[in-house]
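Homework-ish question, so no full write-ups if that breaks the rules, but can someone show me the predicted structure for this set?
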Amino acid sequence: MAERKVQTMEDFASASGISRPTVSKYFNDPESVRATTRERIELALARFDYTPNLFAVNQNRKQTKNIGIIVPYLADPFFAEMARLIERRCIDAGYWPTLFSAHGQRQMEVNALELLRSLKPAGALIAPLGRRSDLEALHKFAADVPTVIFDSNQEIGEAFVGSDNSQSIALIVDYLCRTGEPPCFFEMPPVNPNANKRRAAYIAAMEKLGQTPQIIKVGGESWDFEKMGLEEGKRLIAERKIPTNTVLCSNDRIAIGLLAAAYQMGLRVGRGEGCAMRIAGHDDHPWAQFTCPPLTTVSQNYSAIAETSVEKLFTLITTGAKSESRQVTLFDGKLVLRASA
Amino acid sequence: MAERKVQTMEDFASASGISRPTVSKYFNDPESVRATTRERIELALARFDYTPNLFAVNQNRKQTKNIGIIVPYLADPFFAEMARLIERRCIDAGYWPTLFSAHGQRQMEVNALELLRSLKPAGALIAPLGRRSDLEALHKFAADVPTVIFDSNQEIGEAFVGSDNSQSIALIVDYLCRTGEPPCFFEMPPVNPNANKRRAAYIAAMEKLGQTPQIIKVGGESWDFEKMGLEEGKRLIAERKIPTNTVLCSNDRIAIGLLAAAYQMGLRVGRGEGCAMRIAGHDDHPWAQFTCPPLTTVSQNYSAIAETSVEKLFTLITTGAKSESRQVTLFDGKLVLRASA
DNA sequence: TCAGAAACTTTACGCGCGGAAATAAATTGA
DNA sequence: TCAATTTATTTCCGCGCGTAAAGTTTCTGA
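A: Not a homework solution, just the prediction itself:
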């Protein structure tokens, strides 16, 4: 390869004996040129190994192939996994995904939006920080760029894809009530709408079963869920403030912290005899299977959420249609029975 | 803001009553224009809220402000955290970091390199996949782009920054030997040089203390360390194949799996009486403090590695000097005593 | 106050490519 | 075989900005 320097499309075109506009057409859509021409180009491509200048390409195209992905907290394996799934789908569809993380900070989310905007993206997939988000900035962004929101349903963009918290929470509440003492609810910090929705879903599910909801309240906006679960958990256990022997945590990361607290306080967790308490989570985080004991939880349908988000976005991009109403797609959770509850 | 449409620098310049070249100078370096001019520009900026077209900017600059970060596996919190630290430093220095993850796959690392190259980055910070990397592709990349390697010392690029595995492993081996039965070594899959270096360091440290090294061998190239630790661990415990009651794991993720295995097999882990085994890790992963029991480990100096990597890269970029010899910077680990060993 | 330096304006070119328009060549089908 | 159609070529312009060169204004300091 690289017989001589081929930097520009002009070079490459003359070197391969094809006109530049045709080469340009090829790079925009290989199917748009005749098969024989395509072969000649690809032959030359193998010899000279040329790639078009990304900046020159995107400067002139009305529509780039860039897709922005913004997640609130990349150190959370849920988002790492979602990002992975989404990236893959975008690449497969010939798009160029760029991943940003707000790292839990409002200003970084705003920065990411600005940076992303300067990429003139064809579309964006955003899991907002939530309460800490600059909603105005998000709205302005979504007004200019086709945007699909996932995970946390802020009223932004043309579509939302996420989990049906009512269904999933009811599922595990039912299970816990059916198999032992009804659960109290260890809520997550109210960082985003999921926190409130899950709390509400817990209350509704409990009342439907004729039980009294009992909530362990949590404040703040920290994303250090495990730490909070551990510290709060130790305090609550020490002060005997946990109202029931069964705790449903708002998410798995809280549960991981609480499991550690129980362990450190000498409480055995599980559903067998000799166990002092049951702990359940929500999300089926990648590590939920490695806790001690393994965590009973409700899984979110990662791949369905990722896939649907991307599909919705592609539809938005290709039709360009600002739909009259915001589309909301929710997926059901599934019970994942392990040893902790 | 946005009194009328200000899309181009030309628009903005005339709207703010300043010549375009001066405005251009300002955006390249605000300090390069007179204070009074700077104020006028920033005043206009507040009114019109204009940002230069990223593609047009980068097309003409010989040197972009882009910096690429490639990590092998973003779902690993070690890399998520490193990425966060590195991103922040780059942004603070006025660069534009873009994060790529190989997601454990060779082809995705190659793709990331290609994509990154098309961004004409000023430099790159790469934690290679390791054995699975396309070394030729990495070398070709590093030949064109100033590159600093971190975490996994493949012989690529102008500089490497990482941990001193000899020091850190010796530290924990010493501790374990001093406080109980000498450890056997549960190695990680040989995905990268760290795996071999840590094994060698373990052997050296044991021999120095007059002890016989005993290694639990592991094959494959999987990045699912926890899963491997769990499954292998359960098998080994069931078959009573663990040679000592103290296990030093090659990294914390293996240790997390092994802790789960011990729990599930009914073995109590810790250093007190009544404990069947001690388990130690390496890295001080973000979750090592939430395991049951909390994991005794050796910390890597995250912030020092991130900071130094970025510093080295900036030096490379600004001096442009291909140094005669490859610089290697290693940081010491610190013992983190928790309850597991 | 005035020369010299520093900063600014004006003018102009080019980066590498997308894409339009007019023309030429190759392919298709009857 | 020949027109009708498709595809390729030639030519050209423009995207938004970096940057150089030459001229003009503003600032600096003795």
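Now go work out the reasoning yourself. Hint: Chain B touches chain A through 47 residues (CB under 8 Å).
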